[in-house]
Amino acid sequence: MRTTVGIIGAGPAGLLLARLLHNAGIDAVVLESRDRSYVERRQRAGILEQGTADVLRAAGAGERMDREGLRHDGIELRFDRRRHRVDFPALTGGRSVTVYAQTEVCKDLIALQLRGGGPLLFEAEALAVEDAGTDAPRIRFRHEGREDVLECAYVVGCDGFWGVARKAIPSELTQVFERTYPFGWLGILADVPPSHDELVYARHDRGFALLSMRSPSVSRLYLQVPDGTEAGAWSDEEIWDELERRFETDDDWRLERGPITQKSVTPMRSYVHEPMRHGRLFLAGDAAHIVPPTGAKGLNLAVGDVVTFARALTHQQETGSPALLDAYSATCLRRVWQAERFSYDMTALLHRAPGATAFEDRLQLARLERIASSRAAETDLAEAYTGFPFGWAGSAPLR
User: Which residues have a catalytic role annotated?
Assistant: First the structure.
């Protein structure tokens, strides 16, 4: 097999990249190790930045998102039994976010790809990226019981932290920056309407809690738990009781309970691999960087990566200049490090570290008081939460 761009991974990043390239008239093949059903059920992110939603619309994948997604114009911060709303449009010149699950983004993009895009091969396991440093990289993969080779002009690894793409970059050329946190998130899905119409981020002496949602009838909630916690160690009643404690306020707000349909524990880590490019191999999404979920940046960072690559390749096709492709890693990393900084700051602001002192507790409360009382501090949070611009340096127009 031969194509211009070989894409490893049919998560939202790989699928969106295939769509952007198709719209630009550039052929691509997507290889996905899992079956279609698994990809469309894989629970991940649910918050789309303004820029991500705009890109999906421009790519022709926004119709159902606009019909079923939930626009949110703010978040609520809770601390010391108080409530403070951050008004995004008022602070950012009109920007907002959209609650629309990654599973639904994938369903929309898969349908588009199968209806009119290039090849999308499920249960096609990428085994290795070969000759990445040359002008003719290859992806060796297994599909339908036999090994095959996809010859490419470019390879984009959207295959996550455990994928093969990053392993093709020689270790002596790389730097890794990482931090592991001593806590995780116990997350639940519950068949109950959300108890608030926007996300609630709660800082409590017992630990962080987040009230989110997947739809008007399905709630998504999280509790900070010690690292290594098993989801099954908490009963449904214990989870609801703890959520009530951490969301408590001095007014008459109440948390609605309902049947819990899913429990899982998400470990917390920060990770950046530099560079994000080697020869004709480009990394995108979790293959290159991971953020703690507090800032809702993971999916949005991956979208920024593939938009940057699609713009750069289109620019080269139209002008013959490789300048934007050559700048891919540096361009993406500027945005990545801002998202890492924001996600770290939000995590440190809202989570209580094991062994935290009374001094550290008071510092957290002082920082939250500053956000609640200072328009400048509040604006900084709102601008970061709704999203950093894609391609800060020399971007060609999005197609």
Answer: 72, 201, 293, 297, 385
